[in-house]
Amino acid sequence: DDTILLVHFEDNSYADSSIYGCAGSGSPTYDSDNPKFGSGCARAYDGILYNFTRAGWKLGDTDFTIDFWARVPGGWNISSSMGFIWGLTGNWGGYFESRSSYGNLYFYGYNKYNNQTTDYYLCAAPTDSNWHHLAYVWHKDTTYMQFFLDGKCMNAFFPCDFNHYESNLLDRMYFGAHYEGYYTR
After folding, report:
1. 30-47: pLDDT as tens digits
2. What confidence category does residue 131 fall into, taking pLDDT thresholds of 50, 70 and 90?
3. Cβ(39)–Cβ(51) under 8 Å?
4. Could you tell me which residues are beta bridge partners of residue 80?
5. 118 Cβ neighbours under 8 A, 6+ residues apart
6. Burial bucket for residue 154 (CB in 10 Å: 0-12, 13-18, 19+)
7. How many whole angstroms separate alpha carbon 49 and alpha carbon 103?
8. Integer distance in angstroms from the first to the last C-alpha of the chain?
9. Residues with Cβ < 8 Å from 87, sequence gap 6 or more?
10. What are phi and psi of 117, to 5 degrees?
11. Residues near 177 by beta carbon (within 8 Å), at least 6 away in sequence
């Protein structure tokens, strides 16, 4: 019951394997040359992204973890978005985003202490083109986010208040790009 979205992206169907069976849409390139698991993987390329929409995810109602495997062919020394959750209250730029930017990893989220969205530096990005595991852990009581790279906690907690997000917009998750297709490289 606690796994609200589980997508393998390894068989070119991109189906949600959780008990909720959330429908997705989009048409990322399927790459069978460099899979982490199974026979292939999804590849965000040329502005193509994949998204899932489901009412009732209730992000911000309880602790949660978002984790995934990512590989950036040619290295992480580019600007690349890995996923978005859209919907901060009254803020066109309001979203949670996981991204690499020219050799560093960041997340972008709402900081309740300065009442604005903030770019949080997480750590230096990997210097190779291997697969890496990224995990974001959000704690409801503190509204702080914690980041793990390949199982190692990087830096401390960062304020990221999901209670400030529009609940009716927290039903959308986008993989590989901004919700309008921006920042896909």
Report:
1. 888 888 888 888 876 655
2. very high
3. no
4. 100
5. 108, 109, 110, 111, 159
6. middle
7. 23
8. 34
9. 94, 95, 165, 166, 168, 169, 170, 172
10. -75, 145
11. 44, 47, 48, 49, 81, 84, 183, 184
Token couple for 37:
């698991």
* C-alpha closest to that of 65 among 133, 123, 145: 145
DSSP string for 46-106: TT--EEEE-TT--TTSS-EEEEEEE--TT-S-SEEEEEEEE-BTT-TT-EEEEEEETTEEE
Q: Dihedral through CA 120, CA 106, CA 170, CA 134, nearest 10? A: -130
Give pTM, 2 decimals. 0.82
Round to whole Å and give the CA distance between 180 and 100: 18
Tens of pLDDT, residues 60-89: 678 888 888 888 777 777 666 666 565 444
What CA–CA distances, in Å, run from 156 to 87, 120, 122, 152, 153?
Answer: 25, 11, 9, 11, 8
Residue 65 one-letter amino acid: T
The size of the chain, in residues, is: 185
